[in-house]
Specification:
By secondary structure, the protein is α/β, with parallel strands linked by helices. It is 30% helix and 19% strand. It is globular.
Length: 280
């Protein structure tokens, strides 16, 4: 359901669990949404509405445990198909099937098929990662250069140039941010590394109140396993820049273990994620 002004709330059915706010989100609008829709779980804000949203309105929805999603162009918009279906669409297109026939096979529009096959789903959130799950959305997939992610990255000790547009560095990336914009997680995979490490690196993890850090790390590992099957996951921790007396404690609580230190001048701990379980 789409809300453009206050009068639109009266037309929303009381069974609605998802609402899209287009123009402005005030505290009065937020309270009216909660009263009108007792089953409300997710509120999606356009970029225009996010800029005009009041802090009291956001706090009102967050206190009611409502997922807030900023729906900008190609920045975390959910898609109606899975990765497996995307592979099927590509195979069908290679065999000469038309967009219309592929769309009828998958059950989506021809425009969505065209966008998927042209690679416009790079920053989208995948259906199998978020839909049909009992728990709430933990991470959203975003992009390098996301404004909310850049603010969190500027507060991280590994940030080299604060205020720079991009914060992930070179390589293949998976950038995750929580719906409340309070935690950032960056996975990065480089083909060539000068430190001799192999696998996918947690280049940055910043949590400013999005929940238990160990739980966030476990969820981020699940998404990385889906992206890079069988790859080793590791990270660096700099003890002299951390206030905790046990550097990497949140990673250790998530099952990670210290496997060594680097050879550089600054002694960094190398932590490695547990290997995925193998079923017979």
């Amino acid at each position: 359901m789409i809300v453009r002004r206050m009068q639109d709330i009266a037309g929303i059915p009381d069974t609605a669990n998802k609402v899209r706010v287009v123009r402005c989100l005030t505290r009065r609008v937020a309270e009216s949404l909660l009263n009108r829709c007792p089953r409300l779980k997710r509120v999606t804000l356009t970029r225009f509405a996010r800029k005009r949203a009041s802090k009291k309105a956001l706090d009102c929805l967050l206190s009611a445990k409502i997922d807030l999603i900023c729906d900008s162009a190609r920045q975390g918009r959910p898609v109606g198909f899975s990765r497996v279906e995307l592979m099927k669409m590509r195979l069908m297109r290679e065999k000469g099937f038309s967009y219309e026939r592929i769309a009828s096979f998958v059950g989506i529009s021809q425009g969505s098929v065209f966008s998927a096959l042209k690679g416009y789903t790079k920053f989208h959130r995948w259906r199998e990662d978020y839909d049909g799950r009992k728990e709430r959305v933990v991470w959203m997939i975003t992009r390098d250069g996301d404004p909310d992610g850049r603010k969190l990255a500027d507060n991280h000790y590994s940030r080299k140039t604060k205020g720079a547009k991009f914060f992930c560095g070179p390589g293949e990336k998976l950038v995750l941010i929580t719906p409340d914009k309070k935690a950032l997680f960056v996975w990065r995979r480089n083909k060539v590394r000068w430190d001799g490490q192999k696998g996918v690196e947690c280049a940055m993890f910043r949590n400013e109140g999005a929940g238990l850090s160990s739980a966030l790390i476990k969820e981020a590992v699940k998404l990385a396993r889906k992206r890079w099957l069988g790859e080793r996951l590791f990270t660096y921790v700099r003890p002299d820049r951390i206030k905790s007396t046990d550097p990497g404690f949140c990673f250790k609580k998530a099952g990670w273990r210290v496997v060594g230190t680097n050879r550089g001048r600054r002694k960094l701990l190398i932590l490695e994620a547990p290997a995925p379980r193998r079923f017979a």
